[in-house]
Amino acid sequence: MSLQENCFLKVKNDYLNFLNKEEIYIKSTSAKIKNLKKIYIPISFWINSKCKKNGRTLFLGLSGSQGSGKTTVAGILKIILKNFFKKQICVISIDDFYKTLSDRKSMSQQKHPLFKTRGVPGTHDVNLIINFFKSIKKKKFKKIKLPKFDKSIDDRLKKSYWHNVYKKPEIIILEGWCVGAKAQTSYLLKKPVNNLEKNEDKNLIWRNYVNEKLKKEYKKVFAMINYFIFLKVPNLKMVFKWRHLQESKLKKISYNKKKIMSYSNIKRFIMFYQRITLQMMKDLGKSASVIMLLKNNHEIKKVLFKS
Questions:
Q1: Torsion 79-80-83-87 (CA) sign
Q2: CB–CB of 85/11 below 8 Å?
Q3: Fold observed for domain 57-70+92-305
Q4: What pLDDT, in 10s, does the model give residues 72-129?
Q5: Are 12 and 36 in contact (CB under 8 A)?
Q6: Which residue among 60, 71, 76, 81 is least crowded, i.e. fewest CB within 10 A of its CB?
């Protein structure tokens, strides 16, 4: 029996149980099994080889647009790396590092009204991420508490609800829509990409500030990441469709129905992300170490290993 076959047998049940809880699209068991064998197990073997070669904690960035399936992919990789490879793995979302609602309200008053909406670079507490990464790199590891953000209330939870990391991770996966994003030239910033930029950021204050954050603070964070895995969507229309499905799923499990976004809310929300999403499709679509090409039906068409 090959190592990959052995891996399949050991993780199959946990993988299927996880998908039954997580998925939005209903897929046949045979399709799920095929994805496990052809996509997730090969990626996990690739990660394990990089981890061995690295010799210390491996930092991975996992990115993709709204609703592309980042959280699900990260969860699957964690199951395989933990259960078969016996790795100490920590999966964190950049979403959990959003600034508090009150901080974003202050930003919206002092910088630009659009900063009240979470999402773009500038709305995360980057220092928390940098300090977390630095603490992992220290020889002596101490227990770490990581923030937890609740999208249904649009705010950070109290510290009693934060994540605890008790052991030093061998692998860290930072997942998030803008992980690995690069700043644009001032020339590209001038032309609005949608009505939000055209009507509500006429003086380019918002997009220039976001771009400046990418150029400095976020660049520091992303420079600490060893390899990037990118979920490349077919087009922006699919981003809206999948984000709508994601919101429908959140509605089923949330106690706070008022905070769940409507169709028109989502359409506007996606505009905040559009510029960087399109740029990432160009940049990470070429430079990421692993590129997962998605089809319109949310299936993974192909996986490309670049390094």
A1: negative
A2: no
A3: Rossmann fold (3.40.50)
A4: 999 999 999 999 999 999 999 999 999 999 999 999 999 999 999 999 999 999 999 9
A5: yes
A6: 71
Q: For the CA atoms of the chain, what is the radius of gyration?
A: 19
**Angle formed by the axes of helices 41-54 and 3-22, nearest 10°:** 110
Please give the span between the terminal C-alpha atoms of the chain, in angstroms, as a whole number: 27
All residues at 6 or more sequence positions from 8 whose CB lies less than 8 Å from its CB, including other chains: 36, 37, 41
DSSP element (H, E) containing 43:
helix 41-54
pTM above 0.70, yes or no: yes
262: pLDDT confidence band, cut at 50, 70 and 90?
confident
Name the residue type at position 21: K
CA distances from 141 to 24, 86, 132, 135, 137 (A): 38, 19, 11, 7, 8
Domains of the chain, residue spans: 57-70+92-305
Give the other-Cβ count within 10 Å of 29's Cβ: 10
Query: How does strand 171-175 pair with strand 58-64?
Result: parallel
How many whole angstroms separate alpha carbon 279 and alpha carbon 236?
12
